[in-house]
């Protein structure tokens, strides 16, 4: 079952290389990122229209691209 996903990753490997190159050349900014951006780490307060990010033990410098990718991976999972 994983074969199509592995093939997709191999075919798109150049994207990861480009991101790494851009980060290493300081073209993409390094910022404070959460590094565990799953829905369980967000609290919603519907009465006050607020959102809170929790579970800050994984916060460190990094790229927002990694946070976005991790969020997409965890939120779109069918499991």
Give the arrangement of secondary structure elements:
Layout: H1 3-11, H2 13-24, E1 31-33, E2 42-45, E3 50-53, E4 60-62, H3 64-75
Antiparallel strand pairs: 1-4, 2-3
What is the 3D form?
Answer: flat
Mean of residue pLDDT values: 89
Number of helices: 3
The helix/strand series, from N terminus to C terminus, equals HHEEEEH
What count of structural domains? 1
Q: Point out poorly predicted stretches.
A: none
Strand content: 15-25%
Distance between the termini: 14 Å
The helicity comes to 40-55%
Cα Rg = 16 Å
Strand order of the largest sheet: 1-4
Describe the structure.
The protein is an alpha+beta fold and 79 residues long. It has one domain. It is 42% helix and 18% strand. The protein contains 3 helices and 4 strands. The strands form 2 sheets. Strands 1-4 form a two-stranded antiparallel sheet. It has a two-stranded antiparallel sheet with strand order 2-3. The longest helix has 12 residues, at 13-24. The two termini are 14 Å apart. The model has no long low-confidence stretch (mean pLDDT 89).
């Amino acid at each position: 079952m994983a074969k199509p996903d592995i093939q997709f990753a191999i075919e798109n490997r150049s994207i990861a290389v480009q991101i790494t190159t851009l980060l290493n050349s300081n073209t993409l900014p390094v910022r404070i990122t959460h590094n565990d951006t799953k829905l369980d780490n967000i609290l919603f307060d519907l009465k006050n229209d607020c959102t809170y990010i929790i579970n800050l033990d994984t916060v460190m410098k990094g790229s927002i691209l990694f946070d976005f990718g991790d969020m997409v991976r965890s939120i779109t999972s069918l499991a």
